[in-house]
Amino acid sequence: MALAQDTPTRTGENTVERNERVTAAAHRIRHHALNMGEVQGQGYVGQALGAADMFAAVYADQLRFRADDPEWAGRDRFLLSTGHYAIGHYAALAEAGIVPVEELETYGSDDSRLPMSGMSTYTPGMEISGGSLGHGLAVAVGMALGLRHQGSPARVYNFLSDGELDEGSTWEAAMGAHHHQLGKLTAMVDINALQADGKTDTVLRTEPVTEKWEAFGWYAQRVDGNDVGALLAAFDNAAAQAAAVGRPSVILCDTKVGRGVPLLEEREKAHFMRIEEHEWQLCREQLSAGFDGKAER
Ligand SMILES: Cc1ncc(C[n+]2csc(CCOP(=O)(O)OP(=O)(O)O)c2C)c(N)n1
Ligand SMILES: [Mg+2]
């Protein structure tokens, strides 16, 4: 069983080993994402690369799940509100052993279990259908309440985008989570400073983001979302400082669209990328060179 686990903590692992293990998982997630993107020749590849470290921190370190039983009642729930980030999530599910790696090449094809936008009815491990932005946190709040009612120890994670902070429903849910003292709820926001219509601060200015979440009663941390060590430390802090007192946590992650592939990091039209046939191999080479420390950054 690949990374399947009932308890995320690996005994005997030191901080360096933990960081290296999760960083390697993030690297494989990025490779999977490029391979999936190539199937269609285009897509939300930049988001998957940007958020790969977040997906890796969750799937390789935090979540309790059983790869051979994705609906195991005791599992932690990971809710992807941003259906268009499905490439990143499928790559993480493959890394976790929930979806076979070979299946990734069916991405977006007819009859595939991996549609272009995340849908719970199609994909094992996909808890919600998330294409309509701004709903994931409310579902996560309801799920966390329901699990608590059942006496379940399971935790709930919601992955949001910075565009979802434009939605009033996100903030209503944030108030509800605080009101109900949902200490087992963790939100992760991918602040890639980008939305479909342009840069986030030109579409709708949401800063100062950390202070807003704090004002809503959450334990809020802002980290470099492409720094695995910082992400893992933030999860540790959240568990130590918020969960025990019944306070929901949010980890605000500054990420770079296309991270790890310089060719894509520089793209102007980054929300939905079209990548030429000859560029995919170059992308993979740049990714590997960066990981092996051969690229100049
Ligand atoms: C309720 C809702 N409104 C509008 C859209 C159309 N839409 C799809 S992606 C997107 C951008 C949202 O921002 P973000 O998720 O931060 O974009 P990214 O970082 O992926 O570029 C929008 C407006 C949608 N899916 N749902
Ligand atoms: Mg965004």
What does this structure look like?
With 297 residues, the chain is α/β, with parallel strands linked by helices. The protein has one domain (15-291): 3-Layer(aba) Sandwich (Rossmann fold), CATH 3.40.50. The chain has helices at 15-40, 45-62, 86-95, 136-149, 168-179, 200-203, 209-215, 228-241, 262-265, 279-291, and strands at residues 42-43, 77-80, 156-161, 185-191, 194-195, 198-199, 219-224, 249-254, 273-274. The strands form three sheets. A five-stranded parallel sheet has the order 2-3-4-8-7, with helices on both faces. α1 packs antiparallel against α10 (279-291), α2 (45-62) crosses α8 and α4 (136-149) runs parallel beside α5 (168-179). The mean pLDDT is 94. The structure holds thiamine diphosphate and magnesium ion (MG). Magnesium ion (MG) binds at residues 161-163, 192, 194-195. Magnesium ion (MG) is lined by residues 161-163, 192, 194-195.
Poorly predicted tracts of residues:
none
Task: Report the helical percentage.
Answer: 40-55%
Major sheet, described briefly? 5 strands, parallel
Overall structural domain count: 1
Largest sheet strand order: 2-3-4-8-7
CATH second-level architecture: 3-Layer(aba) Sandwich
What's the CATH H-level homologous superfamily?
Thiamin diphosphate (ThDP)-binding fold, Pyr/PP domains
CATH fold group = Rossmann fold
- The dominant shape is globular
Distance between the termini: 36 Å
Order of helices and strands: HEHEHHEHEEEHHEHEHEH
Q: Kindly state the number of beta strands.
A: 9
Mean pLDDT: 94
Going by helix content, strand content and strand pairing, the class is alpha/beta
Give me the Rg, rounded.
18 Å
Query: Briefly, what CATH class?
Result: Alpha Beta
Helix segment tally: 10
